[in-house]
Design goal:
By secondary structure, the chain is an alpha+beta fold. The chain has 5 helices and 7 strands, in the order ααβββαββββαα. It has one domain.
């Protein structure tokens, strides 16, 4: 097989794989309008612009940072939820505790100097908010429209 033909086949296969991977994904443009301007009373410090995700950093009054990440799972093409199953297994290092927060089950991880809350919203989105303290992360999480994000995630 010639090198040019091999490269053409590789590019074609990668195109098909990436098309499958993003098929049914929620574009960031549909997620962004659901994200409140402030979380826990804190305005965004910096946002990254991704086609399939929302990532926002918040500079807290004490100079530390909190983060919000809303991402697509991309397991729809493979139908393999192994990674999500591992992330959501509780108790584990990834998900020490499960709680119902804003009406949806979330993994809550509280550590020394960090806290995070992560929702898996079948079957397309994950939402994770992280902050230096449990109080801050819970205040920020309370401002998220999880029900609206879950409805967006469940749309086919």
């Amino acid at each position: 097989m010639t090198r040019a033909l091999a490269i053409s086949i590789f590019v074609a296969l990668c195109g098909v794989a990436s098309a499958d991977m993003t098929d049914g994904a929620v574009p960031a443009e549909q997620i962004k309008p659901l994200v409140p301007h402030k979380l826990g009373g804190v305005e965004p410090y910096q946002a990254l612009d991704y086609p399939w995700a929302v990532a926002i950093a918040y500079k807290l009054p004490d100079g530390r940072y909190a983060n919000l990440d809303i991402q697509n799972t991309f397991h729809r093409s493979t139908h393999d939820t192994t990674l999500e199953d591992l992330n959501n297994k509780s108790p584990s290092s990834m998900c020490p505790k499960k709680e119902t927060i804003s009406g949806y089950v979330a993994c809550v991880k509280i550590g020394d100097g960090s806290a995070s809350i992560r929702w898996y919203l079948p079957d397309r989105l994950t939402v994770r908010v992280a902050a230096p303290t449990e109080d801050t992360v819970r205040k920020m999480a309370a401002d998220l429209p999880i029900a609206k994000l879950a409805a967006l995630s469940a749309k086919k």
